[in-house]
Amino acid sequence: MASPSTRYRLTVAPIEKDGLPCSGRCTIELEHRAQQDWMRLLEGAPRLAGFSGDERAAVLIASQILRDVLHRHADEAAHPLVAHQQALSTALDALDTLHRPT
Predict the structure, then answer these.
(1) What is the extent of the structural domain holding 75?
(2) In a domain, 1, yes or no
(3) Which top-level group of life is the source organism from (predicted)?
C-alpha cells in the first residue's frame, strides 16, 4: 500500500531592495512529494528561541525534504546520499527534536 503524500510547489525568488520581487528570469520553482504534511508540522511545532518564524519554517521544511530524498533513494547503493545516510539521519533526528511540540 502506498504511503500518503502531499505535493508541494516551492518557489524561490530574490526580493529587491525596494521589497518588490525581482523582474525577469530569476525564480527557481520545484515540486516535491512529501511524506508528511508540512502545514500540520508547522502548526504543531513550538516557537524556537533564537529562530525567526521564517528560519523555523525553513529548517523544518529543509529537513523534511532531505529526509524524503534519503527515504526515496535508500535502496540505491550508487546514490550519492546513501553513503552519508547514517550521519544525515542522526542530524535530521536532532533537528526533529527542535520541532516536537512541548
Answers:
(1) 6-99
(2) no
(3) Bacteria
Residues with Cβ < 8 Å from 72, sequence gap 6 or more? none
Q: Is residue 34 part of a domain?
A: yes
Sign of the torsion angle spanned by Cα atoms 96, 99, 100, 102: positive
Residue 88 has what pLDDT? 94
Residues 31-74 have pLDDT tens digits of: 999 999 999 999 988 888 899 999 999 999 999 999 999 999 99
Q: Are 11 and 29 within 8 A, CB to CB?
A: yes
Answer whether 27's CB lies under 8 Å from 11's CB: yes
CA-to-CA separations, 20 to 13, 23, 30, 47, 72, in angstroms, rounded? 10, 9, 21, 28, 37
pTM over 0.90: no
Cβ neighbors of 75 (< 8 A, separation 6 or more) are none
Q: What's the number of domains the chain is made of?
A: 1
